[in-house]
Design goal:
23% of the residues lie in helices and 36% in strands. The protein has 99 residues and is α+β, with helices and mostly antiparallel strands. A five-stranded antiparallel sheet has the order 4-3-2-1-5. The radius of gyration is 13 Å and the shape is globular. The chain starts with 6 loop residues before the first strand and ends with a helix.
Length: 99
């Protein structure tokens, strides 16, 4: 079960988008996420490693009618999760980076 504090990838439709981050709240109305568009992940990672500002990170709300799928951000087949990649490259926890 996905609960607040879980790192996830959310797939949305209308328009098709993917976001990654930490779930803040899930309700019948939708999902509150602290994160960013998955297309911006590499750019955010580079900026974070170099101590640069990044505008794309923030609190987001996705109405449930747009949510196609929510998946835990987990390692798979020897490939580390996005969370693990971030924490390894920055030496900081995701909670520290997102606060």
């Amino acid at each position: 079960m996905v609960q607040p504090g879980t790192a996830v990838v959310i797939v949305l439709h209308s328009p098709r988008e993917k976001s990654w981050g930490i779930v803040q709240e899930i309700s019948g109305a939708g999902v509150f996420l602290r994160g960013l568009d998955l297309n911006s992940f590499d750019e955010w990672m580079r900026a974070t490693v170099h101590g640069e500002e990044f505008v794309g990170m923030g609190d987001q709300f996705f109405p449930m009618w747009r949510v196609e799928r929510i998946s835990r951000d987990e390692a798979s087949g020897g490939i580390p999760s996005l969370r693990e990649q971030v924490e390894k490259r920055t030496g900081r926890t995701l909670e520290e980076l997102f606060s």
